[in-house]
Design brief:
Structural class: mainly alpha
Number of helices: 12
Largest sheet: none
Radius of gyration: 20 Å
Low-confidence stretches: 1-28
Shape: globular
């Protein structure tokens, strides 16, 4: 199977990013993304696992089942959750409401993980030695790219983080006034980089994964337990790994920043945000109603 698209950035891209699309993209891109979801997920599986023809047919059938489930069961949940965001926003965001929204997102994310991680584990259990080596090469290449990226000057990385943060705010709110832009720039610039911790976490995780895959007979359930440790409840464990600790601290900082920033919004920005939320909810409902 040919590989025509640009390389993406982690094992979870076997499908996780695609089916979470409803939570992170704008309305028109959501419809477009869902239209090509089956192609994208199959491409990602092939890129990581180098599927043979039989496996490709099997993967295609499983992807169709996954997307049917996601459309019927999950998209209505996403619409309800985004409706909750709208309600909390209109009633006035505070730390308590931000906690509810962060927890709501975690519930949605974990429900997805519980659905697909057993399937990912089964695929990993059935890989041939050649496919394991192929996966090893792909993940090592990603780690090399990440290692190169984090060697960029700290000021350049910080500016990229700031510009990305500003762009995301403006996508939902429209242009920021000067005081808002200053506040946002100061916040995004203050966030610590997680690149080094992320690389260390990936390298350690991959070492454990390939140790499991190298066993002559892969114990049933062992790979699933490994995946669940990687993706479920990582913020609730004590002590947290350095990468998860930084992510948790950044999440808490975002929670406070968004609560404070919401108090500065102008009427036009509030109207734009609610309008975009309404469009997103409508698109989610339309997609969930399709057969």
């Amino acid at each position: 199977m040919k590989q025509p698209f640009k390389q993406q950035s982690s094992l979870k891209k076997l499908g996780l990013a695609l089916v979470l699309l409803a939570l992170v993209v704008g309305c028109s891109r959501l419809k477009l993304g869902y239209q090509w979801a089956d192609v994208f997920i199959l491409y990602q599986m092939d890129r990581y696992l180098d599927l043979n023809d039989t496996q490709e047919d099997q993967a295609t059938a499983q992807i169709d089942e996954l997307l049917a489930w996601h459309r019927q069961e999950e998209l209505p949940q996403y619409a309800a959750f985004i409706g909750q965001i709208k309600t909390e926003f209109q009633e006035g965001l505070d730390l308590a409401s931000m906690d509810r929204l962060f927890k709501g997102f975690e519930v949605i994310r974990n429900r997805l993980y519980h659905k697909i991680l057993p399937e990912v584990a089964l695929w990993l259990e059935q890989l041939s030695p050649a496919q394991i080596e192929h996966l090893h090469v792909e993940l090592n290449q990603e780690n090399d790219e990440l290692a190169e990226e984090i060697q960029e000057p700290a000021e350049e990385l910080r500016e990229k983080r700031v510009e990305k943060g500003i762009k995301n705010l403006e996508r939902w709110l429209g242009y920021l006034n000067s005081a808002q832009e200053t506040q946002a720039r100061q916040f995004f610039a203050s966030l610590p980089s997680t690149g080094a911790e992320r690389l260390a976490f990936r390298q350690s995780s991959h070492q454990e994964l390939f140790a499991l895959l190298s066993q002559p007979e892969r114990a049933k359930g062992t790979l699933l337990q490994f995946l669940e440790r990687q993706w479920l409840g990582v913020y609730q464990r004590e002590p947290r790994l350095p990468y998860h600790q930084k992510l948790y601290e950044n999440q808490q900082a975002y929670r406070t920043f968004l609560t404070d920033f919401a108090q500065t919004l102008e009427a036009r920005q509030k109207e734009r945000f609610v309008h975009k939320i309404d469009l997103l909810i409508a698109d989610l409902k339309e997609l969930s109603d399709r057969n």
